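subagent[fold] <- orchestrator: predict structure for attached chain, return tokens only, no commentary.
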Amino acid sequence: AAARGEVGRQAGQGGFPHSINAVDGELLAAPITMSAKAGADEFDFTASAEVAFGEKAADAASWTAAQSGKSISAMVEGTIEFDGLMRFSVTLKPAGATSVTLDGLNIDIPLREEAAAQLICNTGSFNFRSAYDIRMLPAGEGCVWNSRDMKPGIQKGDVQGNFRPIIWLGNDERGLAFHADNDKGWTPDRENPAQEIIRSAKAVTLRLRVITRPVAVDTARTFTFMLQPTPTKPLPEGARSWNRGRQGGANACYEAIDCFSGFGLANIKAGVRASDFTGQDPGYNSFRMEPQD
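subagent[fold] -> orchestrator:
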């Protein structure tokens, strides 16, 4: 499928994408996978049936696919809209007649390293100024970020668990956003992170830790999430400098842009507040993005 000729993706045999392309650049380093832990057993889910397509329209398509993992089965229902928005509903059921206790269940979304240099996380808080956490993705291998690693103001707002409804990983040109309406079907847990970002030599993986503590699956258990490649269409000339100037015009002064949520990406001088900026130092509030050729 394609969104205005710019965003494409291919559904793998298990119903999750094995390729996501945005503005002629591949985002995934490998197919999206699901794995689980039941007692001492750790296993990957594998496709158990061919992908079955439903609607195939000019602006949307839908499909279903079955996966199996030892004593548990999963049905993946997927849809994609014209702008590249993908929605996945995953329903877990016992493979047999008896209940199955899962100690963990992960969905891994492996991104190419060059496509995952920046992180934006939104908690959905009513106070939008403290709802965002924006930073360059830390260097190093292993877990470099998790949903508990947030600004103090965000952590104080956590009531049950630490599920983050919006997480975007990307670079200056393109990226991929995870989002979900809620954490229904997950296991809210204040101690264990609901999401992690893991860096290896091969990929930067967004791990969705849907189940983090023992839960009995005796009937259908469903969780839903969405993926959105960005940008959804070609950007107009000079779009990066647009802000709140005249309509269709550019605002070259970064100080005038709402950067309160982006200090992790700005070269802010120590001991100086953004409100002290007078425009005399053009490098004061420049954005520190990854190097460009």
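orchestrator: received. Logging for downstream: The first strand starts at residue 2 and ends at 3. The helical segments are 152-156.
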